[in-house]
C-alpha cells in the first residue's frame, strides 16, 4: 500500500521539476562582432552566457581569464550571471589574439569551460626572428645531396575505390633516413593527357597514406604521402607499435642540430615526392599544388618555400609556425627553462624548419585557414606565417574554430584547385 501511495507523488515531483534542470549546463563566449576582428588598443567585448536546456541559468558565478593567445595572462576575475548574458572586456596593446577562457563550477563539482577569441590587427603580426642568413644555402645543399640519389621508384598496383581511377603504392629512395611512401592515384587512360599534379600531406601522428582518389577523379595526378616513410595499408597494430616505439615523440628527435632534426627528413621527402610527380609523362609541366592540415599545413608551406615548382598550396591550421616566439604553434619545438628562457641551441635549429621562414621564399598562390581558439596551432603563429607570404593569398578566419577542418577551408581549397586546373588547360 505504501508503494501505491508514494508512486503518484514521485511522478508529480518529476513532472514538477523543470526540464532544464535535468539537462547539462552550456557555457558560451562570443565577441560583439561577428568577424571577431579589432584594432590594437580597441576594447573587445566578450558576451558570456550560461544555459541549461533552453533557459538562462537564474543565478551563477563564473571565473574568466584573458590571455594573449593562451600564453601570458592580461586579465582575470569573476562574473555574476543573473539570468542574462554578461560582458567581459579587454584589449591588447600589440597585434595578436585576445583569448577569453570562462569556467563555471556546477553544483556537483563538474567544471564547464568555454573559450572565445578575437584578433587585434592580426595582419600586422611580425615574425619573432628573421630568416637565418644561411637558410637558403643550407637547403640548397640538402637538395643537391638529394638530387644525387636516384629515385628508384617502386609502383605496386592496389585496389581503387573508384572504377575510373587507378591506384598504386609508391616507394621512392630518399635522403634523410626514410623513403617516400605513399599512394599514387590517376585517372584511367591517361596516355597523351596533360594533368596538373597534387601532393597531399599528413597531420601529426603515425599512420598509413590515404588513396587520393577524389583528386584523381577530378582529373589530377594525385599523390598522398605519409609523414614518416613507413609502409602503407598495414594493420593498426603496426602503426601503434611505431608510435609507441621509434616514432614516439618524433618531433623532438634530433632537435639539438639542424643536421639531425626529425623534420629534415620529412621536408626532403616532400621534394622527392614532387620530383616523382614532375617526372611523370602525364604531368602538364605547369601546375603543382600541395595541400595539408596541421602538420600537413606546415609541410605545405615548407614545400612551397623549398620548391619553385609549387604553384599553389592550401594550409589548414598549419603547424610548425613561429617556433621561436613566445606564442608558437605545434610542436612547440623549443624548450624553455623555469624562468622562461629558450634553449639557445634548439632555438637556432628550429629556425631552419619554421614554416614562417619558408613562407618568405614562395611565389605560389596560397590559401590558409585559422581557428581563433585553436590551442594546438595558435592563430598568432598561423598569421605570422601567412603575413610572410609575398604573393597572392587568402586566409579563412573562423572565430569559433578550435583545431579542426571546417567546410569553409575545404571550399576555399577546392576553389584554389579549380582555378589552377583551369589555368593548366592548353
Summarize the structure in words.
The protein is of the alpha/beta class and 426 residues long. It has two domains: 25-124, Immunoglobulin-like (Sandwich); 135-424, Rossmann fold, CATH 3.40.50.1820. The protein is built from ten helices and 18 strands. It has helices spanning 2-16, 135-147, 213-217, 236-244, 262-279, 295-306, 344-350, 355-359, 379-386, 407-424, and strands at 25-31, 37-38, 44-52, 55-56, 60-68, 73-81, 86-90, 96-105, 111-120, 154-158, 165-172, 180-187, 195-201, 221-225, 283-293, 312-316, 365-371, 393-398. It has a nine-stranded mixed β-sheet with strand order 10-11-12-14-13-15-16-17-18, sandwiched between helices. Strands 2-9-8-5-6 form a five-stranded mixed β-sheet, with no helix packed on it. Helix 5 (262-279) crosses helix 6 (295-306).
Please state the average pLDDT score: 93
Number of helices: 10
Any idea what the CATH architecture of the largest domain is?
Answer: 3-Layer(aba) Sandwich
**CATH fold name of the largest domain, please?**
Rossmann fold
Query: What is the N-to-C succession of helices and strands?
Result: HEEEEEEEEEHEEEEHEHHEHEHHEHEH
CATH class of the largest domain: Alpha Beta
Instruction: Identify the CATH homologous superfamily of the largest domain.
Output: Alpha/Beta hydrolase fold, catalytic domain
- Structural class by secondary-structure content: alpha/beta
N/C terminus separation: 90 Å
Shape: globular
Question: Could you give the count of β-strands?
Answer: 18
Strand order of the largest sheet: 10-11-12-14-13-15-16-17-18
In the residues, how many domains can be counted? 2
Give unreliable regions as ranges. 1-21
Alpha carbon gyration radius: 25 Å
Mind describing the biggest β-sheet?
9 strands, mixed
Question: Beta-sheet strand percentage?
Answer: 25-35%
User: Helical amount among residues, as a percent range?
Assistant: 25-40%
Amino acid at each position: 500500500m505504501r508503494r501505491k501511495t508514494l508512486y503518484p507523488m514521485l511522478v508529480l515531483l518529476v513532472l514538477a521539476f523543470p526540464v532544464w534542470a535535468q539537462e547539462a549546463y552550456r557555457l558560451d563566449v562570443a565577441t560583439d562582432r561577428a568577424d571577431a576582428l579589432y584594432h590594437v588598443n580597441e576594447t573587445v567585448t566578450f558576451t558570456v552566457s550560461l544555459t541549461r536546456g533552453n533557459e538562462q541559468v537564474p543565478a551563477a558565478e563564473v571565473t574568466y581569464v584573458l590571455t594573449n593567445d593562451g600564453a601570458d595572462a592580461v586579465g582575470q576575475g569573476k562574473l555574476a550571471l543573473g539570468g542574462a548574458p554578461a560582458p567581459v572586456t579587454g584589449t591588447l596593446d600589440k597585434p595578436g589574439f585576445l583569448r577569453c577562457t570562462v569556467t563555471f563550477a556546477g553544483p556537483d563539482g563538474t567544471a564547464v569551460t568555454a573559450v572565445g577569441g578575437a584578433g587585434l590587427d592580426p595582419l600586422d603580426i611580425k615574425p619573432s626572428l628573421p630568416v637565418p642568413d644561411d637558410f637558403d644555402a643550407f637547403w640548397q645543399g640538402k637538395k643537391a645531396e638529394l638530387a644525387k640519389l636516384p629515385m628508384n621508384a617502386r609502383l605496386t598496383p592496389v585496389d581503387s575505390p573508384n572504377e575510373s581511377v587507378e591506384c598504386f603504392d609508391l616507394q621512392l629512395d630518399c635522403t634523410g633516413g626514410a623513403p617516400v611512401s605513399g599512394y599514387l592515384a590517376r585517372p584511367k587512360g591517361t596516355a597523351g593527357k596533360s594533368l596538373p599534379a597534387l601532393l597531399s600531406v599528413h597531420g601529426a601522428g603515425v599512420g598509413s597514406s590515404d588513396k587520393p582518389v577524389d583528386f584523381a577523379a577530378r582529373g589530377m595526378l594525385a599523390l598522398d604521402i605519409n609523414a614518416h616513410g613507413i609502409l602503407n595499408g598495414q594493420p593498426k597494430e603496426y602503426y601503434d607499435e611505431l608510435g609507441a616505439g621509434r616514432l614516439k615523440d618524433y618531433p623532438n628527435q634530433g632537435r639539438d642540430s639542424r643536421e639531425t632534426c626529425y623534420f629534415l627528413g620529412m621536408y626532403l621527402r616532400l621534394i622527392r615526392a614532387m620530383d616523382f610527380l614532375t617526372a611523370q609523362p602525364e604531368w602538364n609541366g605547369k601546375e603543382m599544388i600541395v595541400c595539408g592540415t596541421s602538420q600537413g599545413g606546415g609541410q605545405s608551406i615548407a614545400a612551397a618555400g623549398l620548391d619553385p615548382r609549387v604553384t599553389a598550396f592550401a594550409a589548414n591550421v598549419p603547424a610548425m609556425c613561429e617556433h621561436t616566439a613566445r606564442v608558437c604553434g605545434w610542436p612547440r619545438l623549443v624548450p624553455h627553462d623555469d624562468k622562461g628562457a629558450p634553449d639557445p641551441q634548439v632555438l637556432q635549429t628550429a629556425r631552419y624548419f619554421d614554416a614562417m621562414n619558408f613562407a618568405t621564399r614562395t611565389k605560389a598562390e596560397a590559401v590558409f585557414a585559422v581557428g581563433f581558439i585553436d590551442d594546438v596551432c595558435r592563430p598568432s603563429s598561423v598569421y605570422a606565417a601567412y603575413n610572410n607570404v609575398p604573393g597572392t593569398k587568402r586566409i579563412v578566419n573562423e572565430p569559433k574554430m578550435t583545431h579542426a577542418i571546417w567546410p569553409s577551408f575545404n571550399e576555399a581549397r577546392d576553389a584554389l584547385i579549380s582555378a589552377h586546373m583551369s589555368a593548366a588547360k592548353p
